[in-house]
């Protein structure tokens, strides 16, 4: 790159633009994450970007009634804390809904019935009356509530929303649906790259053609066949083997294409040398091709993993929508329908579904990029 | 825990069965036609047979799966499109006629075209810009990694992320959706973004652009690095400005890669339905073909004939790309 | 060890392109044969056909008096050293050399003995545990040779093994290969190169190929002294032989020719009587062209158009009126001749070459 002599002003523009774009691209995810660890009350009333600043809340507190009053020196006293032990700072309080901010903490307010109110900054209050309280009295107050972060949302969704079960389902679907196609595709890719047999060129063209067939095409015919097979053997048509094979089938064109590109790029003389050394194709594959193709295999594995993990369509169709068979994406979609307004549930669930792919992504990004390039750049 | 154990056992069995096939079949072949301790002619003959059979052992499972999961369904869908809702009674062209008269189809077709134009264009455009700029700053790789990140997020997860951004609170309530908060901050009226006719399509497209820009960026960035420095240095000596170098020297040299990126995203756009399903389920004029097909397949008992017709339309749209791909692959093979 | 015999061997690709035409070649046991020729002449294809990596379209190939035309590579008893060395990058030097023996399920101790013997021979013992990427080019080359040696093949095949080395290393490795051959006098070796120096220095016999044909087979000096045709004459020797068109004036025991309508030359080469008056080609090597002394009759005369001083020798490019190409003369040492000088050159009659209009040498007819 020839950049050295560019003015620093231009460089500054580049830095600023990239920074802007990066912020644009990361803010949505950041928002989701921050929201998912906020207190659910705060989450529903203020934007996540205010999460770090203290929020000012106006609330009404009703004290307990006669049952908790104490008689002291001939007067009746109610004591307690407006914030119920939570942290925060009361800035104002009032005793009527018309003037909720009439008094500062520490001041004493007196109602028309000679009830005296005293509220401290930390929320402690004292209500004193000559007569017994029949029922609780209302205190209006404004408080600065400091940011509250909590894992409660995660606890809730993992235990009560069935996400744990879905997590296991997703894993059970994803791991074999990643390994099986790699194995099958690697063998096929080697055959297409280095073995001689009639019809090879046609098969390669076929694989490239199938690369773009929309999945949607396959759903109806496959559903029909699956239910026939299920009926024939007397088993449920929707099961793990079925979805593994489906993911394998749909992933194969890309897998074969990527791996063939890579394997056919290996130096031919190495393979010929092994042949002269007396190795059969199976030995060549195991001892030479597999170890040498590791980067390509890894990159496809990541692809397939992300794709299967993130898939909604195939899982819905071939595994079904029942409570115990939902994978994470399916669960998320269901939550979106049933708990559409409960952002504390949605954000935490969404983050659970994306955490594994994100880890895979950041951990193995190098291989992913390499695989993408093998498929697209010549 | 029991569930975990069962999952683990099924996983292991599934993977082992697959590996077992390859080991077993090859060992079987080698033991039927041995190549050791036999007269030379026998060995030579055996090896020839083995060499003819083995490619098919290697290819066998892949071919079976490809035919069953992709090739057969294409043919079967074409046939089903002439049958009624259960796939039993023959209805001729009725499904096709219904399709072209249905307002919903026209709407989703129009929307699909919009998606096809907007998403690949914006993704490629942003991808190219970001690739160019990140190549010249020291924290470029971090920036790239962050912009690439949405690739790892499922469409449904992305939908939730963005739904949160488009969230609307009525009246004087404080907006918790970022977009509306910004609008209010600048003195505007908050909107229910995903319900605004026509424009809501674009709000959905942004999600896919957000996901796909990273893909375009990574590939274009590699292509840009592949440009020989000498051509750029020559252009500098020839007195070209930065923009001229970019548009007249760099872009033409990576034209092929841009085309690949473009078509890859185009295919993805045709298949995408999760976003629409999760965001609007096709309401408020946002229907697209893939989601329409999905809803005909499942909702109200399902109609195989009609959803097959829609699937065929999607297929027809990718055929040109498929032909182009095959042509390219063939040209490349001959070049070897 | 073994002899190699090719009879009417042809190679035709599926699109009907004939790349090897009717090759007949008899290689004796213990010979060092070099296939040489310009790129695209088919020398590598021929080697790969002998190895079994390429099919033989028709004809027969015998190794050790057995027809191996249809036998797969691993059973032909050949070992090949590839241009890129083709070392298995994920295996250590030891494993690279042991690979073929392990596949043949040979006893571990025997494998170990073989590998260590070969490593000793090639001074590779300290590197046995290294991966190929940790070796220098020359060491990799030796590993490739070692891999061939451990198999104790009947025939060694080398496919341009030195072309990836730099100039100095190439000379050193060339000597090593020559030594290797000496230490294994019974093994037959076939070596492909495009470099005539390698061919001249290594070969017992050179097979010169062009466009799928064998142009000439013979010892290096034979090819130099008695090229059978213009192609061989021009290929062997550097700078190449001057070959210019001429007219055969009188055929017979001593042929009289005329070059450029000016220079009559009497050669001690016989030609058939019928060729009188026909066109032909006259050749003389640059190093055989001496400056004519005053009074001595000149073979050719012309103006010096270019002088290249190489230090130990000087090349004079002489423009002879009536000839399209400049005639090159190579003189020892440095000379005081300058561009524009007119000079006269001569040569001893025995060093002259004469070819008929089909470019075949009269000497060999």
From TrEMBL, chain A:
Pfam families xref list: BPD_transp_1
PROSITE patterns to which the protein is assigned, alphabetical: ABC_TM1 (PS50928)
A cellular component annotation (GO) from this entry: plasma membrane
SUPFAM superfamilies assigned: MetI-like
Subcellular location, record wording: Cell membrane
Residue ranges of every copy of the ABC transmembrane type-1 domain listed in the record: 167-364
Protein name: Maltose ABC transporter membrane protein /trehalose ABC transporter membrane protein /sucrose ABC transporter membrane protein
Membrane-related topology note: Multi-pass membrane protein
GO aspect biological process, one term: transmembrane transport
TM region(s), chain numbering: 12-34, 167-194, 201-220, 240-259, 288-309, 345-364
Keyword list, A-Z: Cell membrane, Membrane, Transmembrane, Transmembrane helix, Transport
Coiled-coil segments: none
Family classification: Belongs to the binding-protein-dependent transport system permease family.
From TrEMBL, chain B:
Annotated GO CC locations: plasma membrane
Membrane topology label: Multi-pass membrane protein
Top-level taxon: Bacteria
UniProt KW keywords: Cell membrane, Membrane, Transmembrane, Transmembrane helix, Transport
Family annotation (InterPro entries): ABC_transporter_permease, MetI-like, MetI-like_sf
Ranges that cross the membrane: 6-29, 56-75, 113-134, 146-165, 202-224, 245-270, 304-326
Localisation per UniProt entry: Cell membrane
UniProt cross-references to CDD domains, sorted A to Z: TM_PBP2
One GO BP: transmembrane transport
Gene3D superfamilies given in the database record: MetI-like
Stretches assigned to the ABC transmembrane type-1 domain: 109-325
Cited PROSITE patterns: ABC_TM1
Family stated for the protein in its record: Belongs to the binding-protein-dependent transport system permease family.
Protein name according to UniProt: Maltose ABC transporter membrane protein /trehalose ABC transporter membrane protein /sucrose ABC transporter membrane protein
Species this protein is from: Marinomonas balearica
UniProtKB/TrEMBL annotation, chain C:
Database matches in Pfam families: ABC_tran, TOBE_2
Gene3D superfamilies linked: 2.40.50.100, Nucleic acid-binding proteins (2.40.50.140), P-loop containing nucleotide triphosphate hydrolases (3.40.50.300)
Keywords tagged on the record: ATP-binding, Nucleotide-binding, Sugar transport, Transport
Start and end residues of each ABC transporter domain: 4-236
InterPro entries: AAA+_ATPase, ABC_transporter-like_ATP-bd, ABC_transporter-like_CS, ABC_transpr_MalK-like, ABC_transpr_MalK/UgpC-like, Mo/tungstate-bd_C_term_dom, NA-bd_OB-fold, P-loop_NTPase
GO CC term, one of those recorded: maltose transport complex
Gene Ontology terms for molecular function: ABC-type maltose transporter activity; ATP binding; ATP hydrolysis activity
Protein's name according to its UniProt entry: Maltose ABC transporter ATP-binding protein /trehalose ABC transporter ATP-binding protein /sucrose ABC transporter ATP-binding protein
Organism in which the protein naturally occurs: Marinomonas balearica
Lineage of source species: Bacteria, Pseudomonadati, Pseudomonadota, Gammaproteobacteria, Oceanospirillales
């Amino acid at each position: 790159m020839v950049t050295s002599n560019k003015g620093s002003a231009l460089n500054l523009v580049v830095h600023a633009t990239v920074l802007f774009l990066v912020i644009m691209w990361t803010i949505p995810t950041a928002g989701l994450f921050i929201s998912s660890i906020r207190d659910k009350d705060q989450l529903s009333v203020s934007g996540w970007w205010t999460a770090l600043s203290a929020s000012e809340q106006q609330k009404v507190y009703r004290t307990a009634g006669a049952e908790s009053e104490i008689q002291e020196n001939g007067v009746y006293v109610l004591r307690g804390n407006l914030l119920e032990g939570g942290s925060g700072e009361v800035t104002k309080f009032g005793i009527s809904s018309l003037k909720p901010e009439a008094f500062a903490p520490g001041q004493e307010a007196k109602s028309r019935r000679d009830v005296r109110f005293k509220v401290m900054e930390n929320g402690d209050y004292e209500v004193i009356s000559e007569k017994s309280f029949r029922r609780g009295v209302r205190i209006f107050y404004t408080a600065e509530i400091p940011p509250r972060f909590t894992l409660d949302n995660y606890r809730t969704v993992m235990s009560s929303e069935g996400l744990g079960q879905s997590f296991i389902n997703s894993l059970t679907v994803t791991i074999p649906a990643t390994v099986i196609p790699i194995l099958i595709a690697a063998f096929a890719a080697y055959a297409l790259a280095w073995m001689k047999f009639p019809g090879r060129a046609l098969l390669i063209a076929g694989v490239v053609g199938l690369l773009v067939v929309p999945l949607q095409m396959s759903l109806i015919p496959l559903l029909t066949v699956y239910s026939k097979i299920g009926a024939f053997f007397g088993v449920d048509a929707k099961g793990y083997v079925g979805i593994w094979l489906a993911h394998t089938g749909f992933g194969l064109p890309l897998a074969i294409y990527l791996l063939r590109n890579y394997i056919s790029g290996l130096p031919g003389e190495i393979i010929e040398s092994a042949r002269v050394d007396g190795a059969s194709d199976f030995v060549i594959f195991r001892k030479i091709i597999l170890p040498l193709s590791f980067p390509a295999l890894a990159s496809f594995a990541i692809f397939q993993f992300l794709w299967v993990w993130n898939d909604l369509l195939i899982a819905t169709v071939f595994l079904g929508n029942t409570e115990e068979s939902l994978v994470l994406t399916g669960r998320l979609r269901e939550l979106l329908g049933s708990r559409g307004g409960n952002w504390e549930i949605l954000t935490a669930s969404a983050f659970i579904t994306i955490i594994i792919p994100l880890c895979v992504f950041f951990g193995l990004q190098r291989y992913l990029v390499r695989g993408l390039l093998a498929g697209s750049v010549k | 825990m029991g569930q975990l154990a069962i999952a683990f056992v099924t996983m292991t069995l599934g993977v082992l069965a697959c590996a077992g096939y390859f080991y077993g079949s090859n060992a079987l072949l080698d033991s039927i036609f041995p190549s050791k301790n036999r007269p030379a002619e026998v060995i030579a003959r055996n090896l020839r047979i083995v060499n003819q059979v083995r490619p098919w052992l290697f290819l066998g499972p892949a071919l079976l799966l490809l035919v069953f999961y992709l090739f057969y369904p294409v043919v079967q869908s074409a046939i089903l499109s002439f049958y009624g809702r259960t796939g039993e009674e023959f209805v001729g062209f009725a499904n096709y006629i219904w399709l072209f008269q249905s307002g919903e189809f026209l709407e989703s077709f129009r929307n699909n075209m919009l998606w096809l134009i907007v998403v690949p264009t914006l993704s490629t455009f942003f991808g190219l810009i970001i690739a160019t700029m990140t190549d010249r700053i020291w924290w470029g790789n971090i920036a790239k990694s962050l912009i690439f990140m949405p690739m790892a997020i499922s469409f449904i997860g992305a939908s939730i992320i963005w739904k949160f951004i488009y969230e609307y609170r009525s009246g004087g309530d404080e907006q918790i959706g970022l977009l509306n908060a910004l609008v209010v901050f600048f003195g505007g009226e908050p909107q229910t973004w995903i319900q605004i006719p026509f424009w809501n399509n674009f709000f959905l497209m942004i999600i896919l652009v957000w996901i796909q820009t990273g893909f375009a960026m990574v590939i274009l960035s590699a292509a840009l690095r592949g440009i020989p420095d000498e051509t750029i240095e020559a252009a500098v000596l020839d007195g070209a400005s930065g923009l001229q170098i970019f548009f007249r020297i760099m872009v033409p040299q990576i034209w092929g890669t841009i085309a690949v990126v473009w078509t890859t995203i185009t295919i993805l756009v045709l298949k995408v339905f999760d976003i629409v399903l999760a965001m609007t389920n096709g309401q408020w004029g946002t229907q697209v073909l893939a989601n329409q097909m999905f809803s005909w397949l499942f909702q109200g008992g399902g109609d195989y004939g009609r959803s097959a017709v829609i699937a065929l339309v999607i297929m027809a749209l990718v055929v040109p790309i498929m032909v182009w791909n095959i042509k390219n692959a063939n040209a490349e093979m001959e070049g070897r | 060890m073994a002899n190699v015999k090719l009879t009417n061997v042809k190679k035709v690709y599926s699109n009907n392109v004939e790349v090897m035409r009717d090759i007949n070649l008899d290689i004796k046991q213990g010979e060092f044969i070099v296939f040489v020729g310009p790129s695209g002449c088919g020398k590598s294809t021929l080697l790969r056909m002998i190895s079994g990596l390429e099919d033989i379209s028709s004809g027969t190939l015998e190794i050790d008096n057995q027809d191996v035309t249809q036998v797969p590579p691993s059973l032909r008893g050949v070992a090949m050293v590839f241009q890129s060395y083709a070392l298995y990058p994920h295996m250590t030097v030891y494993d690279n050399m042991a690979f073929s023996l392990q596949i043949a399920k040979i006893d571990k101790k025997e494998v170990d003995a073989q590998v260590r013997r070969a490593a000793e021979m090639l001074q590779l013992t300290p590197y046995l545990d290294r991966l190929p990427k940790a070796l220098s080019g020359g060491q990799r080359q030796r590993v490739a040779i070692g891999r061939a040696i451990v198999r104790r093949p009947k025939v060694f095949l080398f496919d341009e093994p030195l072309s990836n080395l730099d100039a100095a290393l190439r000379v050193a490795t060339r000597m090593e290969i020559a030594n290797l051959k000496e230490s294994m006098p019974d093994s037959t070796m076939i070596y492909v190169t495009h470099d005539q120096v390698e061919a001249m220095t290594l070969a017992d016999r050179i097979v010169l190929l062009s466009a799928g044909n064998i142009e000439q087979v013979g010892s290096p000096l034979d090819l130099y002294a008695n090229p059978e045709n213009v192609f061989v004459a021009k290929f062997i020797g550097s700078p190449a032989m001057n070959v210019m068109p001429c007219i055969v004036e009188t055929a017979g025991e001593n042929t009289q020719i005329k070059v450029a309508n000016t220079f009559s030359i009497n050669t001690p080469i016989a030609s058939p009587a019928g060729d009188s008056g026909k066109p032909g080609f006259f050749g003389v090597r640059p190093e055989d062209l001496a400056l004519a002394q005053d009074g001595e009759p000149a073979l050719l005369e012309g103006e010096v158009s270019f002088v290249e001083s190489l230090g130990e020798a000087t090349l004079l490019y002489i423009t002879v009126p009536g000839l399209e190409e400049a005639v090159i003369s190579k003189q020892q040492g440095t000379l005081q001749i300058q561009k524009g000088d007119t000079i006269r050159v001569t040569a001893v009659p025995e060093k002259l070459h004469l070819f008929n209009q089909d470019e075949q040498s009269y000497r060999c007819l």
